[in-house]
Fold this protein.
Amino acid sequence: MINVLFFASLREALGCAQVTVNTPKPATIAALLDALLQQHPHWQTALSSNNLLISRNHTLAKASTVITAGDEIAFFPPVSGG
Amino acid sequence: MIAIQNADFSLENEYQRLIEAAPNAGGIVLFAGRVREFSAQKSITALYIEHYPGMTEKVFNDIAQEANNRWPLLATTLIHRVGKLMAGDNIVLVGVASEHRAAAFEAAQYIMDLLKSRATLWKKEIEPNTATWLSTKPTDAAAAERWR
């Protein structure tokens, strides 16, 4: 299982803060996105934004990053703290 | 010292904490960021700040460590408030102690610049009738880039 989190404007657009996903192994974040969109086709627009950032276990990641069971993957918009 | 909290912070307490942690400090720089009452001609009634628990702490630690590697710092404090904040409230505090002032001034600016471009925090401006998530400003990205 992969724990997937969404934050800020993306969380509001999806109406969802967290989901768990089973992905085929070995998987990448791109494959995880495909699995998410199969389960939730209406998330296509929000998850297609090309400025979305991705993290794997609290470190910035890319679509090609390999993931394993137990990982925490997060999707979020550009940050605006400070 | 690193903290992410809803509660306010006290500059006096954080100053005391820094000089206790670094008795030989000859220079202390404290930076405080606040919620403005007006932003781009809008009247802001409140700010809501969301963060990614776990990752924000990691990024803060990474930034403090990078600052330590770059300047001879004796103590560092990084506090960011989250949740609902009102106009005039404190948002963020960066405190740096070093033997001499140049390192403290530069490191405080470095920490703020990197925090704004890397820390997993998001601001939403609450106006009387709407609420808007803020996006990264190009000037913030440029401010972080100049330290590379």
Observations:
- Residues 13 and 67 of chain A are 25 Å apart (CA to CA).
- Chain A has a mean pLDDT of 94.
- Chain A touches chain B through 17 residues (CB under 8 Å).
